[in-house]
Amino acid sequence: MLPPETELWNRVEQTAREVFGTYGFGEIRPPIFEPTELFARSIGLDTDVVSKEMYTFADQLRELDWPEWTYPDFKRWIDLAESSIRDGRIPRFRNSDIIDQIRAAVVSIEKDLGGRPDKEDLIDLRELMDQMVLGESLTLRPEATASVCRAYIEHNMQQLPAPVKLYYTGPMFRRERPQKGRYRQFYQIGAEVLGGSDAPGIDAEVIEMVMVYFAKLELPGVQLEINSIGCRECRPKYVELLRAGLQKVKDKLGADSQRRIETNPLRVLDSKLEHEQAIIEKLPRIGEHLCADCAEHYAEVKRQLDLRQVKFEENWRLVRGLDYYMRTTFEITARGLGSQNAVCGGGRYDGLIELLGGPPTKGIGFAIGEDRVILSLLEAGKGNAAEGRDVYIAWMGEKAQATAIAAARTLREAGFRVELPPVEQKFGKALGQADKLGARYALILGEDEVASGEWTLKTLADGSQKKIAKAELVKFLREAKRDSSLRSE
Ligand code: AMP
Fold first, then answer.
1. Looking at ligand 1, which atom is closest to the CA of residue 320?
2. Which of 19, 51, 192, 435 has its CA 20 to 30 A from that of 366?
């Protein structure tokens, strides 16, 4: 990511901060990596994200780095490894077995060889060491909801006034085949509302906030789809119905969908395969199998969206790829993105905090794909990269340089973007340079200007030139800037 596009990234992030701030959200900055376990438990083992997309690595304990060892050192290493397993700093799983084998080897070396192992013994020991897992398993975050929930528990946020409203921005990592709108390192802007209430007004306000944000960015072709995927009561029953329905048509389905009948039947509804579409349309629909509470909740979410004049489409096939979602789910698409056109996904996840060991808590949130928002804005010509420079200072002569340096300082303090060439240039070259940088004005400082205190200001767009007193310059540029921003509105 390079300038000037990074200007656009900043604008997209800054607008999120402003809009989310008006809804009472504060920023949270979770870490980039977490214990693998956190994601495995929250997102779900059978999801694509956990089963094949996470970047995971073992974090080796530094104390256990291979010693340049002699046998007596090695005995100390074993003691350390053992105590690390006891403290839970390295996983017990697998390691305790290997440690037992190493201990046994050590005992026999002590007994049979009087503590003087031969080369063969050392090689055997080394092989056993190589099999140990010497650190905790860590994962580059594939999303941030799990981290936010972990932080909520760890920092006792249930004691804060509810609901707790948090937003984040930053990179996420998933092992994917990179293509337009799909990257291995991508950026999300997300928000979560956590607390005791699952009032449908919360769902609707969260959705309203994203839509207001997208409107403010002038993101083109924004469309909102919503669905309810039920709760722990009604969803399992529906999933069984769906599974039974899918079994009947199994032979007509592709390999992915066939596999999902067992692992995650809801995901079959996501299928984009042409020949599966007609089959899917005939499957049982969750809307007809919601329990009374979920049906009422969903109806009220829709009424609350209407109250807020948020336009939406219902899509019964909208299921999210992560296990923790329940009830309200939504997805927002935008124009200019081809098949990867989802710019935001979200939903309710009551119970996730409990699953992670926290108190009973309701939650809802969303994640916006920032890369795709940027692509869509650029595609629609809404990129508006900021102009290169406001003023290029073309100076000639030693005296003029002192004046130029002072002028640059004054203009920069007033907030203008200024380019000050470090060495003297001929005016012609300086003006060409100013043009290339997209400067709006060139401030010309030669010997005459310095002597008279009347400076020359050239407007590069039309080549017009005027004399301006040093004291008037900032005022003039401010007014010109205000006029042009009024015109562009
Ligand atoms: P998810 O966290 O899977 O619900 O995704 C939320 C949003 O993040 C999606 O709607 C996309 O806009 C964006 N997103 C997810 N995965 C990627 C990726 N690999 N590359 C770019 N954007 C992504």
1. 4
2. 51
